[in-house]
Design goal:
The protein is α/β, with parallel strands linked by helices and 337 residues long. It contains 11 helices and 14 strands. Helix 8 packs parallel to helix 11. The protein is globular and about 50 Å long.
Length: 337
C-alpha cells in the first residue's frame, strides 16, 4: 500500500533537524536517507498519523500467536528476559510501569506477577482485547493521543516501538515528563549497524514500511540525551533472549574473531546493489509472502529438534550476548532528580 501523496512530504532529520540528508537505501516504494550531521537512518518522507493508522490496519493480525507449546514458551522466555533486564538495570522491585506499544500484554502480565502496578498503551484493537482478557489496564490508542498523567511512572518501557514513531524526540521528551524524578526509560530497538545485522539475508527484514527510523548504538543515546536522560546501560542481545539456533551465534562469534569487517547486506544495499528477491516474490514487493503450511508431524519434529538443541542454543547465545553481538539494542536511561 502506498500512502496518498497528499499525506506525505519530505522532512528534516527527525533527530537533529538538519536538512543535510543523503539517499541511503531504496526498496520498492520505501526510500530511506541518512543524515550527514548525526548519522540517523530514516524514511525520507513524513507520515501523518492517519497514514500510519492505514499502514497498521493493513498489517494482518496473527489470530493465534501461540501456535504451539514451543512458541508459547518462547513468548514467556522473552518477557521474562526483558523483565529481568528491566529490574537489573533500574533496581526496581515495585512501582508503576507504563509500556508503550504493549502488544497483547504478556510483558505487563509478567511485571504484575512480580508486584508492579502496570498500564499499557496499545493501538491495536486485537491487542487491547487480549490485555482485557488478562485483566491488564490498557489505553487502546496511539501514544500521541493517549491521555497520561505527568510525573507518575517509575519506569516506561518500549520494545520495538520507537522505530515506528514519526517524532521520536518529541516522544522521548514526553516520556521524560511522564516519569517521576529518578525514573527510568527502557527502550529496545533493532540496531541497523549492529554486527548481527550484517548476517541478515532478507532486505525486507532490515527495512519495513512501518519503520520510520533506524537507530544504532551511536544515534539512540544522542536522541535520549537531548530529551534529558542519562544512559545507564546499552547492551545488545538477540531476538528471544539467547534462545536462537546455536549455529547463528557461533557463526557471529567466528566472524567477529576473524573477519569482523566483512560487508553485510546493508553495505551492499547502500552501494546500490539490487537485492535478491525472496522466493515467490517480486524484488519491489514490500511484504513477505506467507509461508508454506506445515503438517502436524513436521511441527512436532521441529519442536523436538529445538528441544534437544536447547542447551547448545542457550550456551552460544549467552556467549554472543557477552560479546555484545546481538542485533537488538537494549537501552536504559535515567531521568535525573
Amino acid at each position: 500500500m502506498s500512502p496518498p501523496a497528499s499525506d506525505i512530504a519530505p522532512r528534516p532529520c527527525r533527530l537533529c533537524g538538519s536538512c543535510d540528508l543523503a539517499d541511503y537505501v531504496r526498496l520498492g516504494e520505501m526510500h530511506t536517507v541518512i543524515c550527514r550531521q548525526c548519522g540517523l537512518v530514516q524514511m525520507a518522507r513524513a507520515y501523518s498519523l492517519d497514514v500510519l493508522t492505514e499502514i497498521y490496519d493493513s498489517l494482518e493480525e496473527e489470530p493465534e500467536l501461540l501456535r504451539s507449546s514451543f512458541a508459547e514458551k518462547r513468548v514467556l522466555r522473552v518477557v521474562r528476559f526483558r523483565a529481568g533486564r528491566l529490574q537489573r538495570y533500574t533496581g526496581l522491585r515495585s512501582g508503576r510501569i507504563l509500556e508503550v506499544g504493549s502488544a497483547q500484554g504478556h510483558f505487563l502480565a509478567e511485571l504484575r506477577s512480580r508486584g508492579f502496578e502496570v498500564l499499557g498503551v496499545e493501538p491495536s484493537s486485537y491487542g487491547a482485547a487480549r490485555h482485557r482478557e488478562k485483566g491488564i489496564p490498557v489505553i487502546n490508542d496511539f501514544l500521541e493521543r493517549a491521555d497520561l498523567p505527568e510525573r507518575t511512572f517509575d519506569a516506561i518501557s518500549l520494545f520495538h516501538v520507537l522505530e515506528h514513531l514519526e517524532e521520536p524526540l518529541e516522544a522521548a521528551r514526553r516520556f521524560h515528563s511522564l516519569l517521576k524524578s529518578g525514573g527510568h526509560l527502557v527502550v529496545e530497538v533493532p540496531d541497523i549497524f549492529s554486527f548481527a545485522a550484517k548476517f541478515e539475508k532478507n532486505p525486507w527484514n532490515l527495512f519495513k514500511k512501518e519503520h520510520i527510523c533506524y537507530y544504532s548504538a551511536s544515534t539512540l543515546p544522542v536522541l535520549m540525551e537531548r530529551a534529558g536522560f542519562r544512559q545507564v546501560a546499552a547492551p545488545h542481545h538477540d531476538h528471544d533472549g539467547f534462545r536462537l539456533p546455536f549455529g547463528m551465534p557461533l557463526k557471529k562469534m567466528l566472524w567477529y574473531l576473524f573477519n569482523r569487517d566483512f560487508p553485510g547486506l546493508l553495505d551492499r544495499l547502500a552501494r546500490g546493489e539490487p537485492p535478491s528477491p525472496a522466493p515467490g516474490r517480486d524484488a519491489a514487493a514490500p511484504a513477505q509472502p506467507p509461508g508454506k503450511p506445515r503438517s502436524p508431524f513436521r511441527l512436532k519434529m521441529k519442536t523436538l529438534r529445538k528441544t534437544l538443541s536447547a542447551p547448545l542454543d542457550m550456551l552460544f547465545g549467552y556467549l554472543a550476548y557477552r560479546l555484545d553481538l546481538g542485533v537488538n539494542l537494549f537501552w536504559v536511561g535515567r531521568k535525573e532528580p
